[in-house]
Write a structure and sequence with these properties.
- The protein is mainly β.
- Helix content is 0%, strand content 20%.
- It contains no helices and four strands.
- It has strands at 12-15, 21-24, 48-51, 57-60.
- The strands form two sheets. It has a two-stranded antiparallel sheet with strand order 1-4.
- The chain is globular, with a radius of gyration of 12 Å.
Length: 79
């Protein structure tokens, strides 16, 4: 697998907790989108960590094409 699987067109809205670290699925194979469940094992993909410094709403990328991993940059509208 050389390119990620598109998990979703729209991004995933997540209410993050201050001080918590989240691991975003970069391969698109996780059954726990948008977070990693280890499905990337055996591929060149690795999860991307996101540390929430404050509690807030965050849009994690679902199409896996963002240039701003792990956050949505609107790439799903272009591809």
């Amino acid at each position: 697998m050389s390119s990620p699987k598109r998990a979703s067109d729209p991004p995933y809205l997540v209410e993050t907790e201050a001080g918590k670290t989240y691991f975003w699925c970069a391969c698109g194979q996780s059954k726990n989108q948008p977070f990693c469940d280890g499905s990337h094992k055996g591929t060149a993909f690795t999860p991307v960590s996101y540390h929430a410094t404050t509690a807030k709403r965050v849009f994690f990328c679902g199409c896996k094409q963002t240039a701003n991993q792990p956050l949505c940059d609107g790439s799903h509208k272009k591809s």
